[in-house]
Amino acid sequence: AQSVTQPDIHITVSEGASLELRCNYSYGATPYLFWYVQSPGQGLQLLLKYFSGDTLVQGIKGFEAEFKRSQSSFNLRKPSVHWSDAAEYFCAVGEDTGTYKYIFGTGTRLKVLA
Amino acid sequence: DVKVTQSSRYLVKRTGEKVFLECVQDMDHENMFWYRQDPGLGLRLIYFSYDVKMKEKGDIPEGYSVSREKKERFSLILESASTNQTSMYLCASSSSDRDGYTFGSGTRLTVV
Q: In chain B, which residues have their Cβ closer than 8 Å to the Cβ of A107?
């Protein structure tokens, strides 16, 4: 069965520092991979997605993520964090089976220090 | 701008009430989903629908039902609300596996 693990429940970084949020998945084939961001009290917004091609994908708000098949990882990165990036971040995986269902990780809450 | 609209941001209901959560999308998407979100548990799929009048159980369907009479509207029904259904409920829609979901802003339901 598919699974998604986000090992870090909370991460705190200083404004201007770099950021990496970890995501590991368990799936037999190449999955569809997504990162979402959720601001307090809001729904989730899609940051970026990967399903084939270049393993480094660019998203909105200056985020990028790299798919590493050998490590079953899809880590999210940002070179310089802004205070407005404080939010909760979710990794998700979907199958190429037409089910349209995604499995979500439990989320990583990012705190940004001024 | 494409949208998924959930009719209520906050709801307070009494135990035993029948509760309707409404979701409307304007993107002509075939696929719609209801998730609940709880701290430390992430998002868990309750029900989803591939088409009008179609529905499929997700991972935690017990105590819930759904209705999809029109393509743009997907309703979640709590047949008899209980306190353990206090949660954030998120509706989403999609057109394909690859595109990702578009989420609504969520409904925070409190059952007292």
A: 42
Longest dimension (CA), chain B: 40
Interface probe with B: pick from A93, A100, A101, most Cβ of B within 10 Å = A100
Q: Which of A48-57, A98-107, B89-98, B103-112 has the lowest mean pLDDT?
A: A98-107
CATH assignment of the domain containing A79: 2.60.40.10
Distance from CA of A74 to the nearest CA of B (A): 15
**In degrees rounded to 5, what are phi and psi of residue A37?**
-125, 140
> Which tens digit of pLDDT belongs to each residue from A4-50?
999 999 999 999 999 999 999 987 677 889 999 999 878 899 999 99
Domains of chain B: 4-111 (2.60.40.10)
Split into its structural domains, chain A has a count of: 1
The interface residues of chain B toward chain A in range 59-88, judged by CB-CB distance below 8 A, are none
How far apart CA A109 and CA A10 sit, in angstroms, is 5
Residue type, B47: Y
